[in-house]
Automatic annotation (TrEMBL):
Matching SUPFAM superfamilies: FMN-binding split barrel (SSF50475)
Alphabetized GO MF terms: FMN binding; oxidoreductase activity, acting on the CH-NH group of donors, NAD or NADP as acceptor
Protein name: NADH-FMN oxidoreductase RutF, flavin reductase (DIM6/NTAB) family
Organism whose genome encodes this protein: Roseivivax lentus
InterPro entries from the UniProt entry: Flavin_Rdtase-like_dom, Split_barrel_FMN-bd
Top-rank taxon: Bacteria
Length: 201
């Protein structure tokens, strides 16, 4: 099968995000300039540079009470900071609860019963029991082609690692089993790993 996206795919559901899988989930926490709290998952997320460490996530829809975007991007525009909380399998239901298009005054930490803690380098809450948290300062927001498509880039200014995930000095993902997004309504979980040496090593 071949199709041009501009012509449509003719399938019952869009296959695009089922092709680019699995995708890590950035559980983005932000605080509005009015002090309101927001927590929402984004599967268009990844690390993009080592020095300085940088990450990105993309928001692709909008809410009526936020104009051209969603709460996360709107808050980051106002404050210039955000925190990426890494999602473990054990927190899948809480993460899913925060994915709804809730009103801007809804605190998803409270909604999903998630314990919060204050970040160290930025004025923002983080998921207290997440395996890792990346505190970030906004570097740029890039408006992409299409309505409501924004890529948010941030420099990591602080890193929290949960102590039980550090084994002999290595951050071991099998201690918490990262949750990843696939296509449609599907997810997967990391339960095994293997190593490969690069040519010449």
């Amino acid at each position: 099968m071949f199709y041009r996206p501009e012509d449509g795919h003719g399938l019952p559901h869009n296959p695009f995000n089922a092709v680019v899988t699995p995708r890590p989930i950035g559980w983005i926490s932000t605080r509005g300039s009015d002090g309101s709290e927001n927590l929402a998952p984004y599967s268009f997320f990844n690390a993009v540079a080592y020095v300085p460490p940088q990450v990105m996530f993309a928001s692709t829809s909008a809410k009526e009470d936020r104009g051209d975007t969603k709460d996360s991007v709107a808050n980051i525009r106002d404050t210039g900071v955000f925190c990426v909380n890494i999602v473990e399998y054990a927190m899948r239901d809480a993460m899913n609860q925060t994915s709804g298009a809730w009103d801007r005054d809804v605190d998803e930490f409270e909604l999903a019963g998630i314990e919060r803690a204050e970040c160290e380098t930025i004025a923002c809450s983080r998921v207290a029991r997440a395996p890792a948290n990346l505190e970030c300062r906004l570097t740029r927001i890039v408006q992409l082609e299409g309505a409501h498509n924004f890529a948010v880039f941030g420099e990591v200014t602080g890193v929290h690692l949960r102590d039980d995930c550090l084994i002999d000095g290595v951050f071991d993902v099998l201690r918490y089993n990262p949750l990843s997004r696939m296509g449609y309504r599907d997810y997967t979980v990391v339960r095994e790993k293997f190593s490969l040496k690069r040519p010449g090593e």
